[in-house]
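Lab notes, practical 5.
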Amino acid sequence: MLVHSSELSTKQKYLRFIAVAQLVPKGCVATYSQVAFMADLPGRARMVGKALGCTMATDATPWHRIIRADGRIAFAAETLHFVEQYKRLTEENVVVRNGRVNLKYFQWEPDADSFLLAFSKQLKLIMKET
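Output from the prediction step:
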């Protein structure tokens, strides 16, 4: 049974965003708005950022693979978070020039059917852990 997004708690919404982010493979990026859309919560890009901010202290969620819709790293240049995100992306062979990733080459575009199956499994796993 599907649940309307207005019936989800903030925690449930955060868990949906985290589940999507955990599926982004090494060497790829997704945008905040893409994560929101894939979590079936379109228009919640800022909330994705807040959810991922809660996970930055752990390595369980690859927060560094999520960037702005224009391909830029969201953090101000030269800040610790910017440097850390840049470092992690380049270690995964994602090219970052002037704080920007070319989405044409690096944006994650999963097959819809395989994504839905993986998302469902990942969300169930996360829900068990919390």
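Observations recorded by the TA: The two ends are 21 Å apart (CA to CA). The chain has six helices and four strands.
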